[in-house]
Every structure is written in structure tokens, then in C-alpha cells.
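Folding Problem: From Residues to Backbone Shape
Fields: amino acid sequence; protein C-alpha cells
RECORD BEGINS BELOW THIS LINE
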Amino acid sequence: MNYVMGVFNWLIAAGPTVMLPVIITIIGMIFGLNIGRAFKSGLTLGIGFAGIKLILDFMTTNVGPAAKAMVDRTGVHLTALDVGWGSIAAVTWASPIIALLIFAILIVNIVLLILKHTHTLDVDIWNYHHIAIVGVMVYFVTHNMWLGIGSSVVMALITFKLADWSQPMVEDFFGVPGVSLPTVSALSSLVIAWPLNWLLDRIPFFRKSKFSIRDAQKYLGFFGDSMIMGLIIGMAIGALAGYNFMKIMQLGVSMAAVLVLIPKMTSLFMEGLMPISESAQKWSQKRFKGQKLFIGLDAAVVVGNQDVITTALIIIPMTIAMALVLPGNHVLPFADLAVVPFRVAMVVALTNGNLLKNIVIGLVVTASLLWCGTSTAPVLTQLAKSVGIKLGASSLYISSFAATSMIQSWAVYMAFTTHQIILIPILLIVFAGCWYFFDGIKKVNENVNTTEA
């Protein structure tokens, strides 16, 4: 057991670019691929992930300082600095109960698969930190290990079901068959987006609007090209930051490069994924009596979509402006501006690329990130200090667009730390109602249910 945990800890320490090839290779072999094809698929996905990370780091390096300069010019002092999801992940993996939480999440996924209550086989173990951080924070506040584990179990249940329910959008809009996205940073937006999209559909102006990024390209011609749009948006951010002409042009070209390079990197995911997906379907037909499996992957496989990136680049400067004027907000957006594409990806799929809806829903999601981030920043700061993480934050508190800033994570955290006897049952009843609606009434993934019957 110690040897197994040692290997597991080594993989965690190596990070997703090493972990993903290893996990995908093992999964591929389990599904019947020979070791050569399985390893090549895993390595291809690892290379794609490394490419995405390099581009997102590049984006952070360029957008982050510009965003901070925009805020500095206003003279507004915000007390919680967004230190980025990477810092939050470091806090999570440093927790003394992290092994228990990871084991609990794995067990939940396996049990749900056996009982046929999920079709998502989550191989995105690296992003388990999004689920585990809630348990870590609950344990830190309550000093109750069972409440910590219970909160992560509830997070896992919600996450795997959200992944199932949103899988048709991943397949239909992004054209990625046999894949679901159990990444909390992307899925949590749907908690707000689903009801808000329903509401907007009742408003004729939004219901009749079919305007999308593709339409913008058609009408704008030269200016609708993705690299030109990136150039313009980047230059606008630079101008608002007070940059000189040279720096404005440099930021514009950098944003144009992001729009061009990310789709090329994400294409590697599809190349590496297809053999695994095809083998998984054949494997499931034999061993799960026709049950269809969805391979759960990082949402990075879809953030290269042109609609997603362009929507995110529109939302980023609006996020900075909103942070300055939103009542009750104390978060200064900074490091996680680069991951805004993850927050809007499923929104774009839900609206089928309706640009007006994307912006409205995206701004509401952003407001929730700022409010929830403000609410939990003091506890997150204390937690980081308790595990000895050096975050280098210059503000009084730290925050992020990850952790309990996301509405799903915030709701579970609050239920398990405040009036548990009342809020935990309410949370579970609401979730059960959603489960009944999507699986019972709406019958999401109806083709899967039909096959199983």
C-alpha cells in the first residue's frame, strides 16, 4: 500500500503533463489497446495539455499586468488578490486529509458506474483538486474529518451528474463524441447558466437573436477574423491600461497569437483521444451490457473553440470593470483572468454560440465568482498560511476564480460549515430534484438510457 501511495504521490508531484499520459496509457490498455497505441495516445494528450498550459501561461503573463494596470489607474483598492488556481491547487494537495478525499472521490465514481447512475469515467484525476478543496476548507473550518469527506463526496456526486447532463452539449456543439467534462471550473457555470438561459429564452430580444461569432465574422469580413479580433481586443486592453503605443501593439499581437495557437494545441487532444474513445465504447458493450461510457477529461479539450475564446476575451475587460463597481466585491482579478475561457465554455455550448446570451450569462457568472470569492477569501487565506504555502500576495487576503469562488463549490462549502442541520438537507433535496428532472423527466442522454433498458 505504501508503494502504491508513493507512486501516486510521485504522479501528483509530476503534474498533469506527466500524469495524463500515464493515466491515459493505463486506461487505453484496460480498454484493449496495445501498449504502443495506448502510450502514443496518452503522450499526444500530454503534449496537447503542455501546449495549452504554455499558451495560458503566456496569456496570463501578458493580460495579467495589463489588467492590474487598468485597476491601478482607477485608484480603487481591492483587498483580496486573485492568486490563480495553481496556488489553490498547491494548498489543496498540501492538506493532511487529501489522500482520504481523493480516495473518496474515486470510490464515488466507481460506485456510480457500477450502479449505472453515471456514464462518466473520470480520468482527469489532476483536477480532483477542484472537488477536494471544498473538503479541505470544510475540515479546516469545522475540524471534523467526516464533514470534510462528506462535502467532497457531495461535490463528486454533483460533478459527475453535471458531466453526464452536459455531455450532449459537448458532443453536439464542440464535436467531441464519447467525452464528458467533469471539470468543476467549467461545469459550475451551468448552475447559473441553465436557469438564466431559460429566462432569456422568454425574452423576445434574446430568443430571436441568432447572432454568433460566426455571424460576426461574416459581417465584419477582415475584422471578423479570429486573429484580427484578438489583435483589436488586446490593443483595447492595453489602451485602457495606459500603455504606450509599443506595448499596446505587443499586447494586441499576443492576444492574436492566443486565438491562433490554442485551437492548434487542442486539436492534439482529439488526435490522442479518438483511439481511447473508440476502444472504450467497444469495451463497455462487452462488460457493461451495452452501457455507454463517457471518458471524463479536462475542459481544456474545448477551450480552443473560437466562440469560447472570443467570448472570454470580451468578458475579460468587462470582468475588470465589474470588479471596480460591483457592490460587495473585494477581489482584484489577476492570475485567473487567463482561465476565463474555462468559465464560459459550457455557457457557449448551452446557448449554441449565441453571442448576446454568452455575454449576459458570462457576466452573471463572473459576478458570482467575485461575490463568492470575496465571501471565502478570509478562510482561504488562513488555510494557505496554515499549510505553509508561500503565495506572494501583496493584499490582505487571497482569492481565486477556483476553489469556493465557484457557485457549486461555494454552495456545498456553506451548507457544510453553516447551519449544517438545515442547509445540508436543503442542498441534497435540491440536487435530488435536479437529478429527477434531468434523468427522469428530461431524459438527458436518452440514447444511453434506451440502450440500457
Summary: The first strand starts at residue 80 and ends at 82.
